[in-house]
Structures are given as C-alpha cells and as structure tokens.
Design brief:
about 325 residues; alpha/beta; D-Maltodextrin-Binding Protein, domain 2; 2 domains; 5-stranded mixed sheet; disordered N terminus
Amino acid sequence: MKQIVLFFLVLILFACNSNDGNQNSKHHDQNEKVINFQLNWFNDPTFTGEYIAFEKYWKLQKLNIQLNEGGVGIDPISMVSTKKADYAVVGADKALIAISNGAPITIVSVDLQRNPVGWIARPELKISKIGDCIDRKDIELGDKAGTEVSAILKLMFKRKEIDIETAAVSFDFSYFISNKNSVYPVYLNEEPVKARILHKINVIEIDPAKEENGKIELYGNVIITHNDKLINSPKEVKAIINGIIDGWGDAIKNKQKAVEIVMKYVKGEEEYILGVIDRTLEFVTNLYGKTVPPGHMEKTSWENTVLTLKDAGLLKNSIDINKSVKFVN
C-alpha cells in the first residue's frame, strides 16, 4: 500500500515540475541549449510578432526559446552585451547609442519602422501641432525625463525654432485621465487606443514625424544580438528574425487569431488588444509614408536615423552603419 501511495506522489511531483513558471512560456528539452529572448517592457500587444513567432514559427525551426518579459530595472542591452540574453527588443536610439559607446551588439532586424513617440490632447484644447502650445498658460506640455520623449521634444523645438515651457508628467496613464489640460506624451500605437476604447475619450494626436512638428523620422523598436552570435550561429540568427517577420505576417492576415495568441500574455479587453495590434501594424509596415513588409530595413533610413539622433544631441560618438546593422535576410 505504501508503495502505491509513493508511486502516485512521484507522479504528482513530476506533473508539478513539468509546469512552466510565471515567465513567458518555455518550449525546450532540459538537455538542449536554451535561447533567451528578452523583451524590453512588460507584456503588451507591441510584441505580437514575437508572441506568434514563439507560439508557432520558432517551434517549427526547433528553436528552444525562453521568452522573457521586461520591466522596470531590466536593461536588455546590458543583458545581451553580457550574454545573459541572446536576443532582445530595444529602441533603435538606445541600440545605436550603446553601439557607439562600444557595446558588442548588432542590430539584425526592425520591428517598428517608425518611432511611436508622440503626444495626445483633448479636442477642446484646440491643439493639433506643437506650435499650438506657444503662449498657452492654460495647458501643460508633458515631458518624461530620462526617455526619448525629452530628446524628441527638444528636437521639435529646435527644428520649429520655438521654445515652450514643459512639465514633468507621470508615466501612469491615469495622469492624463485626471488632467484635462495635459498635452501628454505617449506611444502613438498604444495610449490613443487606450483613451478612445477604454476611457471613451477622443484625442488629437501630435506626431513628431509631420512637417508641422519638425519632421522627425527614425526607426522604432529593433532586434539586437551579441556580435559573437553572427559569427558562431548565423543560421539561428536568421531563423529568429524570420520567425518574427512571419509572426507579423500572420497578424496582418488574421488579426483575430493574433488577438487570441496575444491574450495568452496580455490581460485586457479584447477590443482594446485588437485596437493596439491594428495600430501597431501601421508602425510595422509603414516607413514614413511608404508601405514595406515586416522586418524591412534600408541603409538610407538608418543613416537618417543616425543624423536625427545626432541632431537631437543623443549620439555623440561616430558610428559605422555597415558594422552596426546586419542585413540578415
């Protein structure tokens, strides 16, 4: 009798140990090498391409992936540089700055063809461009210190030859909800959707890429890897990138299926998640007015990104695009 009980206890323990942890799911054999892929923020629909790649395409290539959620205090560039992660999603600006400072990383693909930073305001404030904020004592032009928001804001001022007093604002979106006079910095593929769908607030968007706001054009999220990966595992690098590209392709073809996959990772209303996926796809396939396939990269656009970062005062060291960016496909 004791042997039977012991047998069932062993089975139960085995089943418990087989369950995944609270990290994003794993699909690997314990005897096989794990490939760590690091996201640059908490789970959200911005990573739809990565989620679909993980659920479908990386498995087809028999890649044993650990998909790791980001968050406060997690530095994906440092993790890749020290080989604690094999690949990561990061902002193009942060990747180029790190490379110019000697980080042993290379950009191998583009997730977002456009940087999504922008501002939103309620229609009653009658603000449709950055210049409308001049001499407006009744409004608050928001800045998020220590982020690319500050650099883009300063560059808009520089290019439009204006100077406007700014105010530090909270990263919590509830700040915008509570402050009706706020011209609030956001990611244009996310918070405008949140305002309209979840909070029933219509908003006007101020896009830095528009001529009236300074025509600031630079790449958004990119995929990086350690330089050694390109030498030692070129086929793996290509499979990782192609999986993400195919993942975004799937989302374009079937947004509803994409929602089902994303909701495994992101809690929230289905309508909101669909809205963010739909809006994010605009940034995945639209290179400042030109329709391109997911993962598309152009040397001229990279050169323009470098010039923009230099103009913003973010990139102080010289950088060789031919060494910093690897066109894998």
